[in-house]
Description:
Chain A has 443 residues and is of the alpha/beta class.
Amino acid sequence: MKSRRIRGLTAVISMATAVLAVAACSPSTAPKQKPIASPGSTASGTITFWHFFTDREATAIQGVVNDFEASHPNIKVQVKDGQDDDKMTQAIAGGGGPDVGLSYSTDIVGKFCKSGAWQDLSQYISRDKIDMNNIPDPVRNYTSYAGKQCTMPFLNDAYGIYYNKDMFAAKGITDAPKTLDELTAAAKKLTVFNKDGSIKVAGFDPLFGFYENSAAHFAAMSGAKWLTDDGKSAIGGDPNWQTVLNWQKSLVDWFGYDKLTKFNASLGDEFSAQNAFQAGKVAINLDGEWRIAFLADQAKNMNYGVAPMPVTDQSRYGAGYITGNVIGISRGSKNPEAAWEFIKYLTTNTDAVVKLANGIKNVPTTKAALASPNLTTDPNFKLFLDISANPNTVTTPPSGAGTTYQDDMQAFLDKWQTGKVSNLQSGLTGLDTQINQALANAG
Amino acid sequence: MTTQSAVVARPGTARVRRRRRIRHSLTVLSFMAPALLGILIFLVFPLFTAVNSSLHQFGQLNSPGVWYGLGNYKYLFTQDPFIRNAAWNTLWFVVIMVPAQILTGLSAAALLTKMRKGSSIYRTIFYLPALVPTVAGALAFVYLLKPQVGLVDHLLKLVGIDNGPLWFNSPHWSKPSLTLLAMWGIGNTMVIFLAALLDVPISLYEAAAIDGAGPWQRFRHVTLPSISPVLLFTAITGIIATLSYFTEAAVAASAASGQATVGGGASGSFGYPNESTLSYPLYLYQAGFSQDRLGYANAMAVVLFVVTFLVILVLLKRSKSFTEGAS
């Protein structure tokens, strides 16, 4: 009798727990997008805006927010700076999050569009007759996923190389390298070893993992493809990967992997004043356009030049890698109309875009802003504008599984540069299988 | 008549007894209710949720996703190229770091019991690192051990070692460096051992000394059996903490890599260098939050729970005879 009662009680508790567990995981369906207001209606109210910038850059953002509030007195914007993608994702998943969010990277476009975390902006764009042709094609391509335009571009970053002109002059090098062979020759000429054989100055540091040296950025040197049109891994089937990886490995071997590792370990942090390029420890460095502002701030007297990335095929010279900040409306936004008004201002108002670009020293993402006389451009910054607009410039494609394919590639490259991959082709083919399995697991 | 009344009385007595039993059970249950509710809400419910989630393919933003059966477990055991490395790193921490912490804590405590003068000062010095926030401690170690420019490398050069280890920047030295960090922060373990050592009756040592036992024999046959329950407790809590080892490895990797983590979240540098510090929990976080594979992360969590449970169960069973001596 007693045992039957205990069994009964256990069953009830188990069932209750199971029900609770299942209830907790019951579909938390995304709120359906409400019909938008008719053309000409005025948005009003308070909205929240999260972005990842801090310090000097956050101040520049606040300046443009102030301009928006002055021109839109019915809308008040509450700004929260220093919010990274992880925090924003968790907040949206928890049913909260900001009305307007700014993401650091295009890596989130796939999963935010696919899941509906950010609302599809197509109906607002269509209603307000936004001319999307005002946005350069390479930029437009990374703001949508599977037909959903859930983000708008908010400035972008373009990558090229920085070189130390004094070091070039000392070694009799007159021009920036245009091909990978020229980069190798310059790197070897500019490198200085200590008496004990350790590296004193690296002409070019080829190790993946050093500052901005990543597969995504090196891929631009050869135009290597990440994904096929149906979203599968294209790495093993694209010979451009082998070209750029073999080149990188040969330069690593010339230095010696251990020497490079030791050299890198002694360098200052990327965004500190001790940055290796700024400290004269590296003569040629791959970096984004923002370095111009850092150099002006932290290494005022440095005599440097900028150039497009060296390439495998001369016809691609001038192209590079771009990635951008993207902005969108959270699915839980209580005031999407005001949120859209704010996004529209930040991403399509030429004066606002130019002011942002001048303030943060990032590349504007509209053709009108790029052509604006108010855009502060010196020859160095102009180069990054040209890279951004180059039709051969590449970016990392949006994926529903976020950065999975890049993470897998990075782990492979860690093995590759230490010499643990004996056959590159079969290694990359195996990587394809691995990435495809991971993508399938992600759904 | 008597028989009749007895027959009539019996059901009444039984009912009274049953009522008493029910009342008693309810009283017990009411006392236990807060604890039961706590266990249900904070242990059983999350556990069932985790198991249920592990059978789905979903991310943070598209909960609950779709039914995936044992797909996540199949991927974990047969396809995932990172899981073996993450499990190996965690196993390394359990096998090397936990004993290292116990030995350091025990040695420091034993040293303090032998000191006649200044023991309180040394006790404070040994305990101080435990008060340092984990992140600050990890950052300090990274900068102290920074190759060529760190203080430790300068000291090594003074004694003639010009090519010191790369510490947190070497895949071979990164785990030993984290172990050094763990050994530095043994304050809490040391205090527990100190209390246990001071609790050992002096008469036992005196009796052993009269019997001719040397220092090692006294430690082996008097000290060790007396503090064995504390040793077991420290080992179990150490293993549980190490199986979920996260913060120190994440901070050290991020600081040593020298790369910025602005905007994209901190998980980009996890495992630096060459995945050598990618512990199981770090990889779990990366899969769940960076790659948005929460179903898979839940499967990893369930496996970690089962492994932790089994390890503790085996440890308790095996150590029964070990601790019985103490009681």
